[in-house]
Amino acid sequence: MDQGAIYASNTSTIPIARIAEASAHPERVLGMHFFSPVHKMPLLEVIVTRATAREATVSAVAYGRKLGKTVIVVNDGPGFYTTRTLSAYMNEAGRLVEDGAAIDIVDKALVDFGFPVGP
């Protein structure tokens, strides 16, 4: 690894701390979780561990902002932030459909509400 290089994973499932275990410089390992489709989804989740250096975090946030993303910084943990909240979003949309709502209506309502894509 280059002296100043930051290693960023786009994983949404592998703990970043586990990835960092394999690095000689765990302080330069973090997650940069982009969402699909990347061109439509404005959010970038930067995931840090207890070992992640502040400089690495600041660099990742600056890079994400340069890309035009809305950046949030979250701690490493199961599902990070967005995958955990996405589960609730998808479950509730599924319940609406189970209760008789038309899927295209649910999808449109959530896009009209402000989500970049529907469930």
Describe this structure in words.
This protein has helices at residues 16-21, 54-66, 82-98, 103-113; strands at 7-9, 29-34, 43-48, 70-75. With 119 residues, it is α/β, with parallel strands linked by helices. It has a four-stranded mixed beta sheet. α1 links the parallel β1 (7-9) and β2.
Summarize the structure.
The chain is of the alpha/beta class. Helix content is 39%, strand content 18%.
Spell out the blueprint of helices and strands.
Elements: E1 7-9, H1 16-21, E2 29-34, E3 43-48, H2 54-66, E4 70-75, H3 82-98, H4 103-113
Parallel strand pairs: 1-2, 3-4
Antiparallel strand pairs: 2-3
DSSP E strands, number: 4
Main-sheet strand order equals 1-2-3-4
**Rg, alpha carbons:** 17 Å
Low-confidence stretches: none
Structural class: alpha/beta
Number of helices: 4
Mean of residue pLDDT values: 91
Helix content: 25-40%
Largest sheet: 4 strands, mixed
Strand content: 15-25%
What would the principal axes of the Cα set say about the shape? elongated
What is the CA–CA distance across the termini?
A: 39 Å
Output the helix-strand order.
Answer: EHEEHEHH
